[in-house]
Amino acid sequence: MVEGRGFSEDERTGTASELVVSRKLATELFPEGGAVGRHLRFAQYLPYYSLNGLVITVVGVAGDVKNGGLAGEDEPEYYTLRRSRAEDWSHHDVVILATTLPLEATAQWVRTQVAQLDATAPVEVEPLTETVSKLADRPRFESALVGFFAACGLVMAVIGLYGVIAFVTAQRTQEIGVRMALGARRVDVLRLIMGEGVRLIVVGGLVGLVAALSAGRLLRGLLFHVGPYDAASLVGVAAVLTVVALAATLIPARAAMKTDPMTALRTE
């Protein structure tokens, strides 16, 4: 509850005239604020015929919930009091129990209570955490699948970058030998090879950034509480890729540093 109050146990035996609305519904119905204490009249054609035509007072505003799925938008909702009357119950009802008892004991107690009312009524009991986990199964699988292909792409990129830098370094072995024979230091050779890698990293990073921004809308359905153009995510991924790419470049660069000038000059 974010405003007003909820229902009381005493109201279950009386005439229902109270209503709790979600924050989003309160904003849509009363944009100027002050939803508590306002009155609503239900239409005559609603399936909940016990409320048809009634004028009900809003007594509280509750926080928004995701009944449309974990990745769905918050929908405007209202809550009515479930009284001790048959017309307030349907064939498919969900009851949430807060208890410290083990699941087995709770399930047995619930089935016993329901059986006293209707022995033929089927009862399914499961923890709320398990219910929420089931809703996350598909997004979790999709995220794992995308993560797997992303990891494969990262490994392939590292191998490719290492191969390119190693090939370029091998092609410039004689040049490196001449430079070192003329007085170039090992750090100069390291700077030379790393410069080649950095240029490739910058070009690839710019191309990848443009591709990521272009494909952002296609990935919107796989994201949860993160926008397709989230700055923190883009910066974090770019930083990880840069570090990995620099590490892949450093290996052939360090090998070039240890090149013997005389051996390099004799290389065909």
Q: Summed up, what is this model?
A:
51% of the residues lie in helices and 8% in strands. It is built from eight helices and five strands.
- What distance lies between the first and last C-alpha atoms, to the nearest angstrom? 80 Å
Task: Describe the global form.
Answer: elongated
The secondary structure category is alpha+beta
Mean pLDDT: 82
Could you tell me the strand content as a percent range? 5-15%
Uncertain residue segments: none
| Total helical segments | 8
What's the main sheet like? 5 strands, mixed
Please tell me how large the radius of gyration is: 33 Å
Percentage of residues in helical conformation: 40-55%
- Strands, total number: 5
Number of domains: 3
The run of helices and strands is EEHEEEHHHHHHH
Overview of the structural elements:
- The protein has three domains: 1-89, no CATH class; 94-135, no CATH class; 137-266, no CATH class.
- The model has no long low-confidence stretch (mean pLDDT 82).
- The relative contact order is 0.09.
- It is of the alpha+beta class.
- The protein has eight helices and five strands.
- The chain is 51% helix and 8% strand.
- Strands 1, 2, 3, 4 and 5 form a five-stranded mixed beta sheet that branches.
